[in-house]
Specification:
Urease, subunit C, domain 1; 2 domains; 8-stranded parallel beta sheet; about 30% strand; globular
């Protein structure tokens, strides 16, 4: 298979050229935009469109009224089919704070399809968001299910091994440092989120292995002042520490454009990961109501809100819209925005030798889109999965 007349989005530049695929892998990248073969079904003229690595979403709960916590194969299929059309070729299904039995049921349902596509995006793992989070920063999570970590609860989760790619936790909770160490030993991203931590708790957390910040700016502590002295919260600590990778919900609503630019200016380009945090509302009409483990919410014209108006309820994003927003509202160069949606999350997963960039030998997970950020085609392991 060959893709010609393309603008190839490489890690450090956008280059006119062509790309060939053999046996599901990227075979060769050439600066010659013209096809080497004579037409045929296996030659795609992209007409000057962009060809990028498939997007990788580390934080996605659902879509089309379906949720990861349903623990059903048909729900996983609808969710991944929807997000594939937004250019996402790999994702980590994400849980919510819930009873332990519900979390374990969800993990057991996903385990047989780990590292597989069931028609849509490849399911590369599970992001366990909660329950070990601070109820005072619960956001759209149900505070009833937010609790301090115990080995009795985290050990059954980590028995799933590499299936657990990320866990969001509040580092200030009792026994959180032990949990962080257990996560890193498992090869799991330890991400601080839904947290009220100050720098006093965060320095030892980083030392224990904390290596990411969940949806930066959202559901986290900020600067406090006691008498004449100021103390950094999770937000400032995350922006200042280059060892912490920062997630961002790039919809211009969770983080308005000025604050988006603040994050992109503060962090090296390699230390930001664009996510959707898409919930059940993604793909539904404005005004549609839905529920997240007991929290009622509704879809708006731009995002999703808790029904009582006290906060946001995840997003209605796709990854192509997230990349577009970073470029158009926060003035991020397209090459950087794509890096943040592909190679950076692949590195966090420890799988950047497998996918995440247009390089020979990597999986041919590809997304073709035009100047208006309309996805025209998506390939998974070189196999066409969606064509507009």
């Amino acid at each position: 298979m060959e893709f010609t007349n393309a603008r190839l989005i490489l890690p450090n530049e956008i280059q006119r050229g062509s790309l060939s695929v053999r046996d599901g892998q990227i075979h060769k990248i050439s600066k010659d935009a013209k096809p080497s073969a004579k037409g045929g079904d296996n030659v795609f003229d992209l007409r000057g469109g962009f060809l990028a690595p498939g997007f990788i979403d580390l934080h996605i709960h659902g879509a089309l009224g379906r949720d990861t916590m349903e623990a059903r194969l048909d729900a996983f299929k609808e969710i991944t089919d929807f997000h594939l059309k937004g250019g996402t070729t790999s994702l980590t299904l994400t849980t919510l704070a819930a009873p332990q039995s519900d979390i374990e049921k969800t993990l057991a349902a996903i385990a047989p399809i780990h590292n597989r596509s069931i028609g849509g995006s490849r399911i590369v793992g599970v992001h366990v968001e909660g329950p070990f989070i601070n109820k005072v920063r619960a956001g759209a999570q149900n505070p009833e299910y937010c609790r301090a970590p115990t080995a009795k609860e985290w050990q059954p989760i980590l028995k799933h091994g590499k299936l657990i790619t990320q866990m969001t936790l509040a580092p200030e909770l009792p026994r959180a440092l032990n949990l962080i160490k257990a996560l890193r030993k498992n090869g799991t991203i330890a991400s601080a989120g839904h947290t009220d931590a100050t720098e006093k708790e965060l320095f030892p957390a980083v030392k224990a292995g904390l290596n990411q910040v969940t949806h930066t700016f959202n559901a986290m502590s900020s600067l406090t002042k006691k008498g004449p002295y100021r103390t950094a919260g999770m937000l400032e600590f995350g922006l200042a520490d280059d060892d912490l990778v920062c997630e961002i919900i790039s919809d211009g609503q969770h983080v308005p454009p000025v604050l988006m630019r603040m994050l992109f200016n503060a962090k090296p380009r390699e230390q930001v990961v664009i996510i959707t945090d898409a919930t059940k509302g993604a793909g539904l009409k404005p005004g549609t109501q839905f529920e997240l483990c007991g929290i009622k919410a509704k879809v708006t014209t731009t995002t999703a809100e808790v029904l009582d108006g006290r906060g946001l309820a995840g997003s209605t994003l796709t990854m192509i819209r997230a990349v577009q927003t970073a470029v158009e509202q926060a003035n991020v160069p397209l090459v950087d925005a794509v890096l943040m949606a592909t190679l950076n999350p692949a590195r966090q997963l420890g799988r950047d030798n497998e996918f995440g960039s247009l390089e020979a030998g990597k999986r041919a997970d590809l997304v073709w889109f035009d100047n208006r950020y309309q996805v025209k085609g998506v390939w998974l392991d070189g196999e066409l999965r969606f064509m507009a």
